Amino acid sequence: MALALTALAPALPAQAAPKPMPTVTTGPVDKDLDGDGVPDLVAVGGPGTGLGSGVWSGLGVKSRKTGVGTGEVQTPASNVGLRGNGVTGDDSPADFDGAQVITGRFTGVDHQDFLYYYPTGTSAGNGGVIRGAGDGTMANLTETSSRSSPTI
Questions:
Q1: Cis geometry, peptide bond prior to residue 20 (ω within 30 degrees of 0)
Q2: Residue 141 near residue 128, CB atoms below 8 Å
Q3: Which residues are bridge partners to 55 per DSSP?
Q4: Is the alpha carbon torsion for 92, 43, 105, 148 positive or negative?
């Protein structure tokens, strides 16, 4: 007599095809002054701020491993407002004292611009736009600025 053994095992489920890696697309990034896909930091200096007069820019740091921003900025920051905005007539960084500055795409180009506005002081209600150069700095003021006196 011979004994025959047959192993019975349940069938394994079919393996799902591996999911494709997501594609990372980069488009315009808010507050990205130099076009590297990482937000940058802008602060206005002047009396009482702890910074010298002008507009200070700290470019964002990109991770070498992941290629995305780390949430840090490069130091030291650069004063991109050294030529002022023309509000006092002497084109000095002190032109920005008391102003607020925000960045955005205000002139219709593919990089960030600088909008400055005076909420208080002798220039209260005035402001303007200075086109960004695309490298984290301001373009030549005499060719690219727009000043306004809004009625509020």
A1: no
A2: no
A3: 44
A4: negative
Task: Locate 78 and state its tokens.
Answer: 């650069």
How sure is the predictor about 148, in pLDDT bands with cuts at 50, 70 and 90?
very low
CA–CA dist 79, 81 (Å, integer)? 5
Q: Which residue has the higher pLDDT, 124 or 10?
A: 124
pTM of the model: 0.73
Token code pair at residue 3: 């004994």
> Chain centroid to CA 63: how far?
16
**Cβ 111 vs Cβ 122: under 8 Å:** no
CA dist., res. 123 & res. 88, Å (int): 10
Q: Is 134 left (phi over 0), alpha (psi -120 to 50) or beta?
A: left
